[in-house]
Amino acid sequence: MWWRAADGPDEAVGSMRFHSTRDLRLTAGFGAALEQGLAPDGGLYVPETWPEVEPAALRTAHGLAELAERLIGPFAAADALAADLGPICAEAFNFPGPLVPIEGEQLGVLELFHGPTAAFKDFGARFLAACLTRLRAGAGRPLTILVATSGDTGGAVAAAFHGRPGVEVVVLFPRGLVSPTQQQQLTCWGGNVRSFAVRGTFDDCQRLVKQAFLDEPLRAARALSSANSINLGRLLPQAVYYAASTLALAGPRGEPVSYIIPSGNLGNAVACIWARRLGLPIGEVILAHNANRTVADFLTDGHWQPRPSVATLASAMDVGNPSNMERLRALYPQLEALRGAVSACSVDDEAIRARIASDYRRLGRIWCPHTAVAAEAYARLPEARRRAGRWVLVGTAHPAKFREIIAPLIGRDVPLPPALAALFARPSVFEEIDADLHSLRAALAGESI
Ligand SMILES: *Cc1c(COP(=O)(O)O)cnc(C)c1O
């Protein structure tokens, strides 16, 4: 056996429970936690116990899908989904996440953007979709997934659920406030994906989703769920690519591998920290934020002060009150322990632009604005620290998604990868609605699957 329960060696495999970050008595099994998304008290689900993995035994896995099955296996043990975990992982991890070395440095780039919508969110969205489809099989009513999006999340979720039976996706985005590339990704699906351009802001879209969840007529007509990044089913699979790159770089002696992660809601970063908690030889974890400084300031002065988000070039990280901070605090309740576990920095737009231009000249690499935040954080490390370890920059999106920003900085266009080009060949279809519940209700009733 390649892992053992935390309580003792070779105990019978029991089912793993997850508890709320707020009320520890509120627990759920794996499948139930995925279906609920959020715990009933508004907290986030975290594992009650941690299995210890044996890195040596994980090493023999062939490919991401097999590694995923081994790593996630203990969490799904004895759950209704356990029997299907192999096919679920095969569906979710069907594209690569290569680790590309940078010459002359002890540095690699973990490219997580080779999926259908060219951002790391494809891994989590596809895993959640594969799980929910199975959990819902045979359920009477179709499941409606409501997603409010400021650009990236809606595309990944729509792509992951498109064409799946028994599930309908409703995407709400603020009319005129997403980039042309993003709008195409939100509106090109058809079938079981419906897109609504809301006459309002992203905050209005989020408010509408919350109101819909509380609305009796809507809930009577359909089962509602969310595919927000706080869902355990999006977070846990993200630990898999950290395990893969760590095993690849750490060598047989298990030398620690350190990560710099472009961060917003901290879902990607918590997945890395969970991988370390599971026993993988991960060293430093640096949270690379844009001008939204809430986390960096908290680690410096110890005051948690959420604030409204500010718009930046790295827009998928424009978060002023990162929801997954609750999961970090659950693992490290003491500030000093947290400071020992992670560090953070904040990079403004000017530095993002300069980093994209200079690394293109220097290395021939084209960063998306989010990945550029991590590249800048790396450049700011003292040289001794850079040389002391093995470092990985996490590449969260393909630069072509942000070609309007990047092309002027590097003096050339960024060609679309085939997956994105295919999306651009599809017709864009969406309806406009007012930013109120009445309009959403009427639009949803219009043509239900
Ligand atoms: C969502 C996103 C991030 C931020 O990830 P979190 O898990 O919210 O911290 C970073 N980069 C890109 C491209 C994203 O889409």
Which features characterize this protein?
449 residues; Rossmann fold; 6-stranded mixed beta sheet; 5-stranded parallel beta sheet
How would you portray this structure in words?
- The chain has 449 residues and is α/β, with parallel strands linked by helices.
- It has a domain at 96-118 and 235-417: Rossmann fold (3-Layer(aba) Sandwich).
- The chain has 21 helices and 16 strands.
- The protein has a six-stranded mixed β-sheet with strand order 6-7-15-12-13-14, sandwiched between helices. The protein has a five-stranded parallel β-sheet with strand order 11-8-9-10-16, sandwiched between helices.
- A hairpin with a 4-residue loop joins strand 6 (99-102) and strand 7 (107-111).
- Helix 3 (63-76) packs across helix 11 (238-250).
- The protein is globular and about 60 Å long.
- The relative contact order is 0.13.
- It binds pyridoxal-5'-phosphate.
- Pyridoxal-5'-phosphate binds next to helix 12.
Total helical segments: 21
Indicate the low-confidence ranges by residue numbers: 1-12
At CATH's second level, what is the architecture of the domain at 96-118 and 235-417? 3-Layer(aba) Sandwich
- Rg result: 21 Å
CATH class of the domain at 96-118 and 235-417: Alpha Beta
Q: How many β strands by DSSP?
A: 16
Bound molecules: pyridoxal-5'-phosphate
Task: Estimate the global geometry from the Cα principal axes.
Answer: globular
Cα-to-Cα separation, first versus last residue? 45 Å
Helix content: 40-55%
Mean pLDDT value: 91
